[in-house]
């Protein structure tokens, strides 16, 4: 729980603070004379004072950027919310920079953020929430100078599934990353030539050339077993020796793991606390099912599983990188976690960039692999961060694209599978998810669906409001669906008096399906029923034709068209296709 202190000196300040109190659940109010107490008790502070006065008041309290609360100043007129100190926060939660935006949202003020990386939208190494070693200042300067252009934006997102899939090259800099995680140590050579900044993502002990930083991913699990009464010092010494001999960094240890029966073993609990990582325990029967290289019958008789250290390290999958080691009263083993994959199934919308959702843009920018139809990939190629792998193919290769995307995600990569419109509507979501459940271990990766503006919605907006009441969508492509089934659906839609949107209405090799579908609809609705043909909605060459069921010229329809035929209630109103909602509007109460 983050507590925000509200420090006030005037009536106007107290009124503004009251607005924040009503908006936020965890606030505490202080008079200006109690600022020192707020400093001790709160995570972030909003001072309703001038910046000069605030600077003088907090100067004696400053201890260091890694400990001080973030402070925001708000002027008497509530015009500005100024991030003063602690921009990124002690816990990398955004600190005063984020707080300035939050305050501004409530008060209607303008946030003022002067931290260079935030002000320029560059991102900052100390916001990764991961250990970072090396020449942070030099690499940050390179970022601000554009030498790491866009690369760090994808680093944090990539680390939630594994490393970015690289190498990712920018002008004068290499963000070293690889499909195998973590990276092997880089060769170090002596040279008088100035070296470009470099960011390494690895759990190995490396000595990279300057200027460089090393980001430590949480990739290692240490399994621990011990006799009753083991000392924490012995456990810690064994762990550090095991990591050192394998050339692994303790800062990449994500957690300690052991058997449930050791959950209260004081030496193990204290070792986890000293390392600053959680202690995870597993039932003996689960550990007994994990295959290990060094099982022990003695251990089985004692705790019900032939292995504790190795089995606990491997319980959540991964690769054993340090087999079981012993000390007098403890055992330890180290496994490297397998990166968890991510499959984002992304709808790009009908074509125009401003109809692509911000969430879709974010998913495209964060991925390590982009999979899609070549013409859709071309639409968004400019959004890809440097080093993104692109897997593109032509029409008719839907199953291949789905299979590729799911396989890559199951291997631990961050994948975006893209399609036009909404990926769940006549697009890639269905085949990908079918394959994920039928052929791949879909529990090894996360699936994220990103909705998009469909062709039906884009065409409807151009025509007017044809979808104002009940409607349906039917694909007229019989490449994978028997025409008899399609015809039954068209007839059912006609009988139900639904507005119908026809996808895939006509191509060079399929020119009979649309006339037959219109003929079926004409059995139930008159020739004056409104109809519309929209081709290349929101794309260059867009055309919109408002017509009738009887007057629709099928020769103008292509595979890039969407055809909408109204219900018996549909009307053309002031040149717009409208299907009334059918409400009996009630007069407003007086």
From TrEMBL:
Residues 220-335 form the CobE/GbiG C-terminal domain. Residues 35-118 form the Cobalamin synthesis G N-terminal domain. CDD domains: Precorrin_3B_C17_MT. Its EC number is 2.1.1.131. GO terms for biological process: cobalamin biosynthetic process; methylation. It comes from the Bacteria. Pathway: Cofactor biosynthesis; adenosylcobalamin biosynthesis. Keywords: Cobalamin biosynthesis, Methyltransferase, S-adenosyl-L-methionine, Transferase. Residues 342-552 form the Tetrapyrrole methylase domain. It is an enzyme of class 2 (transferase). One of its GO terms (molecular function) is precorrin-3B C17-methyltransferase activity. Gene3D superfamilies: 3.40.50.11220, Cobalt-precorrin-4 Transmethylase, Domain 1, CobE/GbiG C-terminal domain, Methyltransferase, Cobalt-precorrin-4 Transmethylase, Domain 2. PANTHER family: COBALT-FACTOR III C(17)-METHYLTRANSFERASE-RELATED. This is Precorrin-3B C(17)-methyltransferase.
